[in-house]
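Need the bound structure for 4'-deoxy-4'-aminopyridoxal-5'-phosphate, inputs here:
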Amino acid sequence: MSVNSLEALDRNHWVHPVASWAGHEKRGVTIMKSARGAFVTDADGHELIDGFAGLWCVNVGYGHESIVQAAAAQMRELPYATGYFSFGSEPAIRLAARLAELTPGDLNHIYFSLGGSDAVDSALRLIRYYYNVTGRPAKKQIISLERGYHGSSSTGAGVTALPAFHLHFDLPAEGQHYIASPYPYRNPAGSDDAAVIAASVAALRAKVEEIGADNVAAFFCEPVQGSGGVVVPPRGWLKAMRETARELDILFVADEVITGFGRTGPMFACEAEDVVPDMMTMAKGLTSGYAPLGALAISERVYRAIADNAPAGSPIGHGYTYSGHPVSAAVGLEVLRLYTEGGILANGQRAGAHFERKLAELADHPLVGEVRARGLLAGIELVADKATKEKLPREARLSEHLFARGYANGVIFRAFADDIIGLAPPLCCSESEIDLIVARLRQTLDDMLAIPEIKAAL
Ligand code: PMP
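Answer from helper R.:
Posting the output first, comments after.
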């Protein structure tokens, strides 16, 4: 079918996620056609390096034939088996066991979803269940971080603290609370590591005191905040928050949907700080986007309490038709094999160290306020004035120009509305591919300086 016909059909029929519907009608769709390694090609034949790994998910890179083979073999043998009641399939069982092995500490029990939002939703539902069956039904309030993203389900979107996910959706709902993001670049406590950590710990304590510890169920956080503008907390922050949650007797849920599977270096970001959460959500890199799959890892303590206290003979009424889908699970197993035996995790660590060094070189650019990175996850915050950290006015439409120009220059990144560039290259990148991403990004930033409405704002 021709690109023009596809564009027309798209305009008339496909309602795109996280898009301005009216804006999309005007702009039209950008159709991706094929991909290999770290490169994607669109329907016009334009090849780009994917500095965002799809939607921070294609960690192993595109075009792995062994994943195709794993999916095809599973489809041939058994395309579907329910996980409901006590049914199952070999790939889902093996994947649960492998994830229990890879996740930290006693996160030994795996609940499968189709992506991150329903992994978070599963956590939220099971946390309610946990406190109800263990006789503490008042513990229902959830605390999360400003700038946090925890998916788009009805409840999860309220744990998410991004304005576009609340506006006109009647969120936040009752029982959803936020504390300030550990945002060193704009932290009122200053950018000093110890001050940022102390401010977050104090904020969590104060919030729990305000609501009453007997009413608070859990604290949710991303080890590095992704969709909120790639906020990288200081080392030690995650551990301090985990310990504080334990002291306050609230569950600690680490949302590793982006940070999991080598994105920040180790298999999970929690590992770097020896943190064992009560629950951990994951998705994206679990299958590297080759098939939809998410998972919620549950600690031994929480799992046992639910199993032993749930009403005898009554099913725990939470599940999806595709929980533990055998094809997604087979894909997941092969992707996990590629990280370890295939050397992609180790390559990602080397590439991540190189990426951090190369990106730091952009700090001298007149538009760059801050470069922040942990491994292959980075944010570049753009400002009009480096000293005051003042942003460009909205009329300059910097993010829009950035994305369009970057695309023309052959690099894909995320341009957040508040002029923060998000980057998450595939873990399979070579050093020269990392260099290409950074070079095209610098060119794009340079191009911004020639755009009249941006020039006028500087
Ligand atoms: N949690 C985090 C931290 C995420 O980044 C995302 C997706 N960007 C989600 C949850 C939701 O995952 P999904 O889009 O797969 O539902």
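Comments: The first helix runs from residue 3 to 13. Residues 115-117, 120, 149-151, 222, 226-227, 255, 257-258, 283, 294 surround 4'-deoxy-4'-aminopyridoxal-5'-phosphate (CB under 6 Å).
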